[in-house]
Structures are given as structure tokens and as C-alpha cells.
Design a protein that fits this description.
This protein is an all-alpha fold. The protein has one domain: Globin-like (Orthogonal Bundle). It is built from seven helices and no strands. Helix 2 (25-50) packs across helix 7 (144-161), helix 3 packs across helix 6 and helix 6 (124-139) runs antiparallel to helix 7. It is elongated, with a radius of gyration of 18 Å.
Length: 163
Amino acid sequence: MYRGITMLTQFSKLSLDTDGRYATDTELQFIEDYLESVDVRISTYEKIKANEEAILQEVDAKMHELNKDNCLYKMDEHGQDICRRDRKQAIKYTSAAMVINDLDRLRDGLLIWLQTIVRAVGYERFVRTHYPIIQEVIKQYLTPEEAKFILPAFQLDCTILGA
């Protein structure tokens, strides 16, 4: 009944739907599903946090290699520093959204705002190349089970920012 809706939205909807009555087992299922995945979500988050610097360095190196001769983008050192900062923040926000299973908040809060900036500077092509590399690198630090929780969040980043 509540599948595909974020965790916080699910709780709000459950509260409204069950006003004055007890929730059914079906209505409570999303809580059980989340609780079954919370250990893996936390493990994923902690691994990304612990390896953040290595992940960022590896992504930066791969992007630099792909951009030989400035074929993807032209960016001065200041612009590259801004991209590194933004990449670090995106990884943090994306990981946090995955932990609480709230990709709607990620989309509505951060990604729509960043999309405006990406479009303004014309870096959609850069983003479409960049986020698959982030996904590729992060997978190296995670088990397949952990990766299945975080990769859809990064795919959302890529889809919105690269549009």
C-alpha cells in the first residue's frame, strides 16, 4: 500500500489514514521492511563515510583522465575546487537520504536546487558522465547488498542533475 513512498511520507500518510483507529498489518508493513534493511543501510552509510576521501580522490582521478584535452569540460582550478566541494556534499546528502529512505527530500531539497546551477553553467553532460563514475567507485567499497541501497539514490542524482 505504501511502497514507493519515502519513509517520512509513509509515516505521515499512516498517521492520517489511521486517525482514530489501529493500523492494519498491511499498513505497518513498510516499517517492518525498513527495519529489516536498516542494518545494511547504516553499514552502507558508515562505509561511505569512512572511505569518503578515497572515494573522492578516485572519482577526481577518473574524471581528470576522462577529460583529457578538455573534451568534457573546461574548468579552472577554482571551478574544480567548487566541483569537489559539491561532489563531497552530494555524496553526504545522498548517503543520508538512503539511510532514512527519503529520496523525495533529496530530490526536492538538494537536487532541484543543484539542477538549476548545473543548467546555468551548462554542465549537464559533465554530470551525466560524473555520476556513473561515482557509482562505479562507490561500488568498490560496498558489498552487493549495500550497493543496492545506495546506487538508486545516485541514479536519481544523475537523472535530475543531468536532465
